[in-house]
Write a structure and sequence with these properties.
Length: 800
């Protein structure tokens, strides 16, 4: 029996291709007489049948497996095998068994199918699948020149894709490989690759023609967007006419304009503009926005333009045809003629060989401005410059036309902002009438009326109070007559609202203000008149001054009518009117005689108020009224005794009252009640109560004096002693008010009453005496010990 040979060592894979795997190893150790006869390699594809390859050179250290399937994983074992007979296998070579995959087959026919500013369309054919070849996906690697690459994986069933998000005008290198299932093994580069291709640059924008002459066309544009790293190198302009193309390269990438020169007059050109990327692999952008342009140069102008003959309605014209050098072309002549102040008319002559024409149907005596240009063919026709010699200024011969008849303006046809006129027809032939107004403001300062229409016209939107000159002209065959004129002023506008503040009215003056009216005005007349037959004062205020006026010297309490009138050019507006009454005057001094005051009545008199008045209102509660013309007096009855009243007298005029005049007066104190009881010892005991109707009386004191002497005062309820029987004794009972009198009360007239003596009573018993009252002169205040207390009452008692 043979022993097992030593195993090879260092077993590795050295290379792969779609159909091969290279292998290497180190021969087994020969120490101790070891030997072997050959190598045996067993390789098995995933899920497949094993294959065996033997190498009979024991010194061999490498081999290549061939005929393998592309993209397939193989498990590979290596052993040394002993010599026959009884050959034995070594253990597995150190490093084995190996697991290695062949490279997939490469895709085929890799190509670019489309490209834009930001995309590439790519296509390919799938790898050869013969001999069990397989792969898992495609990987595309792309990078702009000088930048890091990017990758994108594509499903194995795909035969094309689109790269997006690219930068405009940038060159990219693009590779395509098939990738095995474990991502570690890729095919060779797809046939046709790697691709080197450039995106299209962004297009210029805002492409327009700017100026045109007979031989040049100016062009403008905006540079392409530079977003997302976009780039370009230059511009390319192509211009074509009649099937022949010309080009212009603009190498300044920052340029935004250029001019095409050396063009033919009157010729149409189609002009394109694109941005061009850098070399290599140059690409062009899409057509600039706004393009391609279709622009025609101007034709050459006619020359030697002149007028030849003139009548009342015609003007003859001559010229020389434009130069035909340098391929010049044009289609017709255009003559524009405009009467002074009128609308332009156009005449076109399609015979390009013509050198004269006659303008007809013109207005007699009218001044015309006449221009001549050559016009190119359609489409996009252009006009030449004005013919040398032009524009011409020519007047037709004047033909006399009769004036319109008289202009009439009825007063009812004039308002603040309109004037209506009528007129009679002019003699002879008339086509129409030209109507105008000066100053030329308003909605329709001029107009025209056909001769066959009603001969009237209304100007509207005019300014109030303004003098206008109105003109009517007869027109016949374009010839105007001498003007018929009339002057008319629009109605003068009323002043605005009149205002009178309460503070601007007194007994003899009124101040008015007002708002300025619309339109023209020179001044204002201000008039005031009362509602009775009185001279009317007037005044005047100039336009531009403060709009106010004050009437003075008026009568108090009088109703006045105030008129304010606008004046313009000596013409008055309708009056703006307002009524106002002057302040009603107070009555004169109110008088109250002492004899006109009792304990329940007060009679007053007063002097008349100045100015107008209807009556007087008298107020004391109750109130009364006295008509103007009656006696100026009034009596208040049923008043309360000892009460201070405030009396007011007010003048009334036209329902308006004056400020009241006031006076204070107290009614007299009513009779109090006092009784006396006597004793046999010569004393009197008084008993008193306050007068009725005088709640302000709070207490009383009593004093007595007899003819032989004077008795000291005593308080109420205390006996008056020392009375001599049969001697006339004066007893003073004074009722006192609880508060000090006001200044008004201090001057109030006070009545003093006295009581006559009763029948003599027995001296041995107490007696009660009824004390009747009688009026006596007042006691001077300087003698009264109670000057500050009012009123005072004196009572006399005689005891016999």
């Amino acid at each position: 029996m043979s022993t097992q040979p030593n195993a090879p060592t260092g077993f590795i894979g050295t290379s792969t291709s779609p159909t091969t795997i290279g292998l290497s190893w180190t021969v087994p150790s020969t120490a101790n007489g070891a030997t072997f006869a050959k190598y045996r390699i067993i390789y098995t594809p995933d899920g497949g049948t094993s294959y065996v390859e033997e190498i009979f050179d024991p010194t061999a250290t490498s081999t290549t497996l061939t005929g393998l399937s592309p993209g397939v994983q193989y498990t590979i074992s290596l052993v040394a095998v002993g010599a026959v007979p009884n050959p034995t296998e070594s253990a597995e070579a150190a490093g084995g068994p190996l697991t290695l995959r062949t490279n997939p087959n490469a895709p085929e026919n890799f190509a670019v199918t489309s490209f834009t500013t930001t995309t590439f369309g790519l296509s390919w054919m799938e790898p050869d699948s013969a001999n069990g070849a397989t792969f898992a996906k495609y990987t595309i690697t792309y990078a702009p020149t000088g930048h890091a690459p990017q990758t994108v994986d594509v499903d194995k069933t795909a035969t094309g894709t689109t790269l997006t998000g690219l930068s405009p005008g940038v060159q990219y290198t693009i590779s395509l490989v098939a990738v095995s299932a474990d991502d570690s093994i890729v095919s060779a580069e797809a046939s046709g690759g790697p691709l080197t291709v450039r995106t299209k640059p962004n297009a210029p924008t805002g492409f327009t023609g700017t100026s045109i002459t007979t031989s040049t066309i100016g062009l403008n544009w905006a540079v392409p967007s530079a977003a997302n790293g976009a780039t370009f190198d230059k511009y390319w302009i192509t211009y074509t006419t009649g099937g022949t193309s010309y080009s212009l390269e603009v190498t300044d990438a920052t340029a935004t304009s250029t001019t095409l020169t050396g063009l033919s007059p009157g010729v149409q050109y189609t002009i394109s503009l694109v941005a061009v990327s850098a070399d290599p692999n140059t690409t062009e952008s899409a057509e600039a926005t706004g393009g391609p342009l279709t622009v025609r140069t101007k034709p050459n102008a006619p020359i030697d333009f002149a007028g030849t003959s003139i009548t009342t309605t015609t003007i003859g014209l001559n010229w020389t045809v434009p130069s035909a050098a340098n391929g010049v072309t044009f289609d017709k002549f255009r003559i524009t003629y405009t009467p002074d102040g009128g609308s332009s008319q156009v005449k076109e002559i399609t015979d390009i060989s013509a050198t004269s024409t006659t303008l007809t149907g013109l207005s007699s005596g009218a001044l015309y401005t006449i221009s001549l240009v050559a016009v190119s063919a359609e489409p996009n026709p252009t006009e030449s410059a004005e013919a040398p010699g032009g524009p011409l200024t020519v007047r037709t011969i004047v033909l006399a036309v009769a004036q319109p008849g008289d202009i009439t303006i009825a007063s009812s046809d004039v308002t603040e902002n309109s004037i209506r006129i009528t007129w009679t027809a002019a003699a002879g032939a008339v086509d129409s009438y030209s109507i105008s107004i000066s100053p030329a403001d308003g909605d329709n300062p001029s107009g025209s009326v056909n001769a066959s229409s009603s001969l009237e016209y209304t100007f509207t939107g005019l300014t109030a109070g303004t003098e206008y000159i109105i003109i009517a002209i007869a027109v016949s065959d374009g010839v105007n007559s001498v003007a018929r004129t009339i002057t008319q002023r629009t109605t003068v506008a009323q002043p605005g609202a009149i205002s009178i503040a309460p503070s601007d009215v007194s007994e003899n003056s009124i101040r008015v203000t007002w708002v300025a009216p619309a339109g023209a005005k020179d001044s204002y007349i201000i008039i005031i008149s009362p509602d009775s037959d009185v001279t009317n004062p007037t005044g005047s205020v100039n336009d531009g001054d403060t709009l106010e006026y004050t009437f003075t010297g008026l009568t108090a309490g009088t109703l006045y009518t105030i008129n304010v009138i606008t004046v313009s050019g000596g013409v008055n507006s309708a009056a703006k009117t307002k009524q106002q009454r002057t302040t009603v005057a107070q009555p004169g001094v109110v008088n109250i005689a002492p004899s006109d005051v009792t304990d329940n009545s007060i009679r007053i008199t007063w002097t008349a108020a100045a100015g107008a008045k209807d009556s007087y209102s008298i107020d004391i509660s109750p109130t009364g009224s006295v008509n103007d013309g009656d006696r100026l007096e009034y009596s208040f009855d049923s008043l309360t005794a000892g009460t201070l009243y405030i009396i007011s007298v007010t003048t009334v005029s036209g329902g308006v009252t004056s400020v009241p005049i006031r006076k204070e007066q107290r009614t007299n104190l009513a009779t109090g009640s006092t009784t006396f009881s006597s004793t046999a010892t010569g004393s009197l005991n008084p008993t008193t109560s306050p007068p009725e109707g005088n709640p302000g009386v709070s207490s009383a004191v009593c004093s007595a004096s007899g003819e032989p002497g004077v008795y000291a005062g005593v308080g109420i309820g205390a006996a008056v002693v020392g009375v001599v029987i049969g001697v006339l004794t004066t007893i003073l009972v004074q009722h006192m008010r609880a508060k000090r009198a006001s200044e008004e009360e201090a001057v109030t007239y006070e009545d003093v009453v006295t009581r006559k003596a009763p029948t003599r009573q027995p001296t041995s018993a107490y007696g009660e005496y009824d004390i009747p009252m009688e009026t006596v002169p007042p006691r001077p205040e300087s003698e009264s010990p109670y000057q500050e207390l009012k009123p005072a009452v004196y009572e006399h008692l005689r005891k016999k």
